[in-house]
Write a structure and sequence with these properties.
alpha/beta; Alkaline Phosphatase, subunit A; about 30% helix; about 15% strand
Length: about 475
């Protein structure tokens, strides 16, 4: 062999470990997909209520968490906990009226943290809670504002010469027209979520010199439940199964649970009195189908991009939704229907296609897990648990429960087979369910299993901070994004 060839081989042998190290240490991108108010009615979680082929296909790419839970059963506190990695029982951000920035001006949310650590941070649609003041501009290098469908819906009916009927006109309870649903003859990509996905698709088609954190917030199936007619045509009303509202289900529920169940019951009664429950549920399912299409369109764009080999994909929902279970409508409870959500993670060279784990997790896990996967230093003061071991070995023994807070003093502890709930730090009662034998949570076992609850109580917060000031306490200049206490 020629001397020059021998030298070339030796040089290649010396350099190849460096090349390999460079490939392994190349920064990973993050595609962070959220859907709004979507409960566990997706095919990959065992539901046959509505086809969700695109979400199911995404689950087949990586790891599906079958026992994932929102950190709070309401948009604002849930998203605040997810994006800060801190539970409401740590921050006092208990409800939608609690702005996080004036209470914690130095707090770095997940997109802001990635931005501070060399990533290009881009977002679109609903990522933080969508009402005014929740999405500070310094979180992002680029943001595509949420396009809500209300104007589109009104214009649609005006063009057809029809009066749009609001159910709330019959029994006014809300200051807006969100309690509404129906179909429209409109192309899926023409709706607000379609515009968000088009923006994200264009982002993925670009060349990026920095690693990116791309958050895509799909608004559906949030109210109003309006969706393209094609999804209604595929789901005849006669095929819509209503959830079970078991007579007497609340008989063994303590005061704290009764209060939560009663919230928005007037809405449920109004819907029932106007024979609209089937239509309401059908419209919600059609909205899920539309959201699923948006996930599919986004994944088509991703698969055409240059980033398929080095991008972490996460899909999550901020909480579930009830349509009569336990005589309750919407969210705002600590039972399974309000907390159980889809969570999917696809991590190159870590997760295996088509894997599942039934380990209980809550979505505060996303902050420490993503920083770990992207080789960023993880802040030491997070509540969330790093679930990287589950990504690598889904069936590994798991000692951590999912912890769910709602309003001050109320917490649910969800383990693999049990749910424990404490209301007002136990003063307004407790609940305990064997979710393996009683998945509907119809039988409260706390009176017969008092000693058993001790293991769950050990996970409860030691202290609940006072709630932070609400929006009404501030004057807010949205143009300058400045706050001032009144």
């Amino acid at each position: 062999m020629k001397r020059s060839n021998i030298l070339a081989i030796l040089l290649l042998a010396l350099l190849s470990p460096l090349f390999a190290f460079g490939a392994e240490s190349a920064p990973k991108n993050v595609l962070f997909i959220s859907v709004d108010d979507m409960n566990d009615w997706v095919g990959c979680l065992g539901s046959d209520r509505v086809p969700t082929p695109n979400i199911d296909a995404l689950a087949a790419r990586g790891l599906l968490f079958t026992n994932a839970h929102a950190p709070s059963p309401k948009c604002g506190p849930s998203r605040a906990a997810i994006l800060t990695g801190k539970r409401a029982s740590t921050t006092g951000l208990y409800s939608n009226g609690h702005w996080w920035r004036p209470a914690y001006p130095d707090l770095l949310t997940l997109p802001h943290y990635f931005k501070q650590n060399g990533y290009y941070s881009a977002g679109g649609g609903k990522v933080h809670h969508h009402t005014d003041g929740f999405n500070p501009p310094d979180q992002w290098d680029e943001y595509f504002d949420l396009v809500q469908d209300k104007d589109l819906i009104v214009d649609y009916f005006k063009r057809r010469g029809e009066d749009r009927r609001y159910l709330t006109d019959q029994l006014p309870r809300h200051p807006n027209d969100s309690l509404d649903w129906g179909s429209m003859e409109v192309e899926p990509m023409k709706m607000g979520d379609g515009q968000t996905v088009n923006w994200a698709s264009e982002f993925l088609a670009r060349k990026h010199d920095k690693p990116f954190f791309l958050a895509v917030g799909i608004f559906q199936p949030h109210l109003p439940f309006y969706a393209p007619k094609q999804y209604f045509d595929a789901l005849p009303e006669k095929d819509v199964d209503l959830p079970i509202n078991k007579p007497g289900d609340l008989d063994d529920i303590p005061e704290g649970g009764q209060i939560m169940a009663e919230y928005r019951r007037n809405d449920l009664r109004m819907i029932e009195e106007h024979n609209e429950l089937e239509n309401c549920v059908r419209s919600y399912l059609a909205s899920i189908a539309h959201a699923d299409t948006m996930v599919g369109e986004l994944m088509k764009a991703f698969d055409k991009s240059a980033y398929t080999e080095n991008t972490i994909i996460v899909l999550w929902s901020d909480h579930g939704y009830a349509f009569g279970e336990k005589d309750h409508y919407a969210k705002n409870t600590l039972w399974e229907r309000s907390t159980h959500v889809p969570l999917i993670m696809v991590v190159p060279e870590v997760t295996k296609p088509g894997t599942r784990t039934d380990a209980p997790v809550d979505l505060t896990c996303l902050y420490p897990t993503l920083t770990t996967l992207c080789d960023l230093p993880t802040p030491s003061d997070l509540d969330g648990v790093n679930v990287t071991p589950l990504l690598e070995t889904p069936n590994i023994p798991w000692k951590h429960p999912a912890i769910i807070d709602y309003l001050k003093g109320n917490t649910a502890i969800r383990t693999k087979d049990w749910r424990y709930i404490s209301y007002d730090e136990g003063r307004k009662g407790e609940e305990l369910y064997d979710t393996l034998s009683d998945p509907h949570e119809w039988t409260n076992l706390v009176s017969t299993h008092g000693e058993f609850t001790k293991q769950f109580k050990a996970w409860l917060p030691e202290h609940y901070p006072e709630e932070v000031p609400t929006k009404g306490a501030y004057d807010f200049d949205s143009d300058k994004y400045e706050w001032r206490l009144k």
